[in-house]
């Protein structure tokens, strides 16, 4: 087969499924053909270590329901930058096609937002397909020097909370000195170093918040013992979200355990094909929390939560950790998910504020958690909840996708910011640090006026009777 050209609009439309005499899809023949290709020993795109599965590929019937929810297809209208187009490329690889630069480009351009998984009427596991494909790409495809250097820098920094915290001092000085505003006015950074310009635009305003103690007792009757992930970006740049999370859990009758030695959960690594690295992070986190006696493991970052719930799949090949990973994953709960399961006991005080709620992709699409955070917000007296148009379209953050792809990420961010501002709400609420940074940067570009907060901060303000000013005064 000819290689698919990466130029916009020139990729072939993937063929539809074969038809039987009665018009049905003869998918068993597709599965047999793809499985035969997998075992034929051809030097195709994938090796035999967790290649994308042929039976999952065959589940796609090319119906197109995914197209309108895919951010890159919405931006470019290119078939090979849609989920079904990428599945077609995966099928080519299983049939013996090599892993070419253009094929890798289309895989790289996927945000991994999983909106297509929600939209698919056939239940296609695109999340599993793209994750296995990216792991193959990282092992088998030689990247150019610039791409290698950028990815090496990202993954030497972002998954390490201590390294990120070392940036707080210089970043605080940069923001307070007025140098940031001066650099922004000149526009030089965008022209000379677009990656640095993206990082600069994403950096939140830093606040000094004491680190939470190792153990926080439940207030009133103890209802559960919970371990808590402090995270990487969350702990370095949004420590106030972690503090709010601890206070909420304690107020709702949870004893909170926060071991100081915890590190990255591996989400950024696994979502970018760095499987071995993600496995190391997962093992360490399991070792840290396994003997704490926790009932639940609470997460307040959507991307982390979706990966933690898949530890059983990540470590399935490790005989020392496979069963332990399954048991650990069964205890993982998003903050809103756990609070919804436990039910409220702490008093909610009024917060007369209009809120636009943004579904973080790895909370809504990957974990299916949509109603729980809305129920928490609606349970606050005086709070009015407003929905955002086109909620299924990603804001463009997608882990580190916005750093690797700053221009299309900014375009997606601007689309999301416009939809947020159109609600007329005074506060945007979401449950992921990447989304908070991405949308905040886009709103600044549009000179918009809306405050931003994590779900935990809103509920914390209500429980402590702090009033709206605690959320809207920046």
TrEMBL record:
Binds 2 [4Fe-4S] clusters. It is an enzyme of class 1 (oxidoreductase). It catalyses: (R)-lactate + A = pyruvate + AH2; glycolate + A = glyoxylate + AH2. Its cofactor is [4Fe-4S] cluster. The keyword Iron applies. Residues 50-80, 101-132 form the 4Fe-4S ferredoxin-type domain. It comes from the Bacteria. InterPro entries: 4Fe4S_Fe-S-bd, 4Fe4S_Fe_S_CS, Cys_rich_dom, Glc_ox_4Fe-4S, Helical_ferredxn. Its EC number is 1.1.99.14. Residues 1-30 are annotated as: Disordered. Pfam families: CCG, Fer4_8. Keywords: 4Fe-4S, Electron transport, Iron, Iron-sulfur, Metal-binding, Repeat, Transport. GO terms for molecular function: 4 iron, 4 sulfur cluster binding; glycolate dehydrogenase activity; metal ion binding. Component of a complex that catalyzes the oxidation of glycolate to glyoxylate. This is Glycolate oxidase iron-sulfur subunit. It comes from Actinoplanes regularis.
């Amino acid at each position: 087969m000819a290689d698919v050209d990466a130029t916009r609009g020139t990729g072939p439309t993937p063929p539809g499924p074969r038809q039987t005499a009665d018009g049905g899809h003869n998918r068993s023949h597709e599965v047999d053909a793809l499985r035969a290709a997998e075992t034929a020993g051809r030097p195709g795109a994938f090796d035999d270590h967790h290649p994308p599965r042929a039976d999952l590929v065959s589940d796609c019937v090319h119906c197109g329901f995914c197209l309108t929810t895919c951010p890159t297809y919405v931006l470019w209208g290119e078939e090979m930058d849609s989920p079904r187009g990428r599945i077609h490329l995966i099928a080519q690889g299983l049939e013996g096609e090599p892993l070419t630069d253009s094929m890798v480009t289309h895989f790289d351009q996927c945000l991994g937002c999983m909106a297509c998984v929600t939209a698919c009427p056939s239940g296609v596991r695109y999340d599993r397909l793209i994750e296995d494909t990216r792991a193959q790409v990282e092992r088998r495809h030689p990247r150019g020097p610039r791409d290698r250097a950028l990815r090496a820098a990202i993954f030497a920094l972002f998954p390490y909370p201590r390294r990120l915290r070392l940036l707080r001092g210089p970043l605080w000085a940069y923001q307070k000195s007025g140098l940031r505003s001066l650099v922004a006015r000149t526009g030089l950074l965008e022209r000379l170093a677009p990656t640095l310009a993206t990082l600069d635009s994403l950096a939140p305003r830093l606040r000094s918040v004491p680190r939470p103690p190792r153990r926080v007792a439940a207030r009133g009757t103890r209802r559960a013992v919970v371990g808590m992930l402090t995270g990487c970006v969350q702990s370095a740049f949004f420590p106030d979200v972690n503090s709010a999370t601890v206070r909420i859990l304690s107020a709702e009758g949870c004893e909170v355990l926060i071991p100081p030695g915890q590190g990255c959960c591996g989400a950024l690594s696994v979502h970018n094909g760095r499987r071995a690295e993600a496995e190391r992070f997962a093992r360490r986190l399991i070792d840290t929390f396994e003997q704490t006696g926790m009932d639940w493991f609470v997460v307040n970052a959507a991307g982390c939560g979706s990966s933690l719930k898949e530890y059983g799949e990540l470590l399935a090949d490790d005989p020392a950790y496979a069963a332990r990973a399954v048991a650990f994953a069964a205890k993982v709960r998003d903050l809103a998910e756990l609070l919804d399961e436990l039910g409220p006991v702490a008093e909610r005080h009024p917060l007369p504020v209009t809120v636009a709620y943004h579904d973080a992709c790895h909370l809504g699409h990957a974990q299916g958690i949509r109603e729980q955070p809305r129920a928490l917000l609606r349970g606050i007296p005086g709070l009015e909840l407003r929905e955002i148009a086109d909620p299924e379209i990603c804001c463009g953050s997608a882990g580190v996708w916005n750093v690797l792809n700053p221009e299309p990420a900014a375009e997606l961010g601007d689309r999301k910011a416009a939809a947020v501002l159109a609600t007329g709400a005074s506060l945007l609420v979401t449950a992921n640090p990447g989304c908070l940074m991405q949308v905040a940067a886009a709103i600044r570009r549009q000179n918009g006026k809306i405050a931003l907060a994590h779900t935990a901060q809103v509920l914390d303000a209500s429980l402590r009777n702090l009033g709206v000013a605690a959320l809207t005064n920046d």
